[in-house]
Amino acid sequence: AQALASAGVQRVLEFETAVAVVADGYWQARRGAERLQLEWVKGPLAGLDSAAITAAQRERLRERGHVVRDEGEAPDPERIARTLTAEYRVPYLAHAAMEPLAAVASVADGRAEIWAGTQGPDVLQAMVARRLGIAREAVRVHPQLVGGAFGRRTYMDFVLEAVDVATAIGKPVKLVWSREDDMRHDRYRPAALAAMRADFDAEGALLAWEARIVSPSVLAGMVPLIAPLLLPEAVPASIARPIEPFAARHDPMNTEGASGIPYYLPRVRIESLLHDPGIPVGVWRSVGNSQNAFFSESFVDEVAHALGEDPLKFRLTRLPIDARERKVLELVAEKAAWGMAPPGVYQGVAVLDCFQSAVAEIVEVELVNAVPRVRRVLCAVDCGTIVNPDVVRMQLESAVVLALTAALYGEITIADGAVEQGSLDDYPLLRIDQCPPIETYFVPSDAPPTGIGEPGVPPLAPALANAIFAATGQRVRELPLMRAFATGNLT
Q1: Structure confidence at residue 167 as a pLDDT band (50, 70, 90)
Q2: Which residues contact 122 (CB under 8 A, 6 or more apart)?
Q3: Alpha carbons 375 and 370: distance in angstroms, whole number
Q4: What average pLDDT score do residues 403-415 get?
Q5: Which CATH architecture has domain 52-92+190-487?
Q6: CA 413 to CA 1: how far, in whole Å?
């Protein structure tokens, strides 16, 4: 009643998962929504919190996983003179795009017209058609500028809500999620846990490398997206549900960024262990590479230091002579004058080949009141033939900014089954006065062009963590890094 009494409010509609306030404009609708007196059912996740999720992930490590890569012979236990182990953890991350989710929908006379920023117009068309029980040809989608996506606008929940409201009121409607709605009802980058292990013989030679990674599956959650597009319209999309467990078990995104480790290692074993507490997860810029590169390239650094080797040299001596990773490492090391930083400046390095492009990054940090401050980031990329250098540079710089935000501050936490963060005051983004100089360099190539929107993200976090180790002698194995410094959670 209070909401309906607000100026400009026309109707209040209740749906299965949401309540919609229809008004003359957005701010009238928002004021009406603030006056709603709602009692939400907490659902099956009531009582769940972040600590319980992490504890369950650790418990999952006690079990056997799906073996993704198993190469080389396991060393004779009698040869193993030393074992290095480490646990790494990353939290859920929101997309936090500049523009919150919004869509315009018009439904009339057996047809629908949609205006939305979407990463899959054809998928959206198929999903709207199934929602309304009409042919795909009766749905017209007008793709708009996305205002930032990073994977979130792969999912169509906000557009389908607009379709439901437009159908209910019989008029075109523009639906806008608030920043709080956007933050608390995201498809998050998964929280993941990794148990890393390296075995050495008595002479210090590296014998074996193992990574066991616990994570929910992103691919399983994409089956409901893909099914409406691939299946004939007469076939219910629900018929694809039995595929979800198989997709989860064999999801390459669970280990990408770790399973393809390019270094020569006599023994490599990578396992994927599923753990799904029920928090919605989805694709996030660079997908599984974003967390798994942090695990893998940080541990590469640990192994190098355990052997008393320079981290850059350790990588280069274990890469094939023609590896793209070698080319970008050599280029970025030259530009950064690796090993010759000024006094008080410390360097960290990481490299990854993903989306068919190789990127190496060196992060330089200095300590200000015992807290690291990023001084400079250098990127080198091999992405084949570069048609427009400005676009490549723009993508790498934006990837560094996003990755630096995530590495320093990004964290979605769960309390009593709900997301605690709501806006940019408790989910901070990197500010312009915090952004370091970013330098980008290109490996000359006449090969076909390859991906550039994603590959700049994964190397940043491990390069930064490795630089912090160089500066402090302490390992940060859990993101976000600034929380580790604030809580003293250093090893």
Answers
A1: very high
A2: 229
A3: 14
A4: 98
A5: 2-Layer Sandwich (3.30)
A6: 34
Q: Which tokens go with 435?
A: 């952004």
Residue 202, both tokens: 């008595």
Q: How far apart are CA 170 and CA 188, in angstroms?
A: 33
Residues 6+ apart with CB under 8 A from 164: 15, 20, 131
Fold of the domain built from segment(s) 101-177: Aldehyde Oxidoreductase; domain 4 (3.30.365)
Phi, psi of 369 (to 5 degrees): 55, 45
- What pLDDT score was predicted for residue 491? 46
Residue with tokens 């030259």: 334
d(CA 314, CA 339) in angstroms, rounded, equals 14
Residue indicated by tokens 């008029």: 171
The CA distance from 20 to 23, in Å, is 10
CA atoms of 300 and 314, how far apart (whole Å): 8
Q: Is the pTM of this model over 0.90?
A: yes
Residue owning tokens 């292990």: 197
- Residue 225's pLDDT band (cuts 50, 70, 90): confident
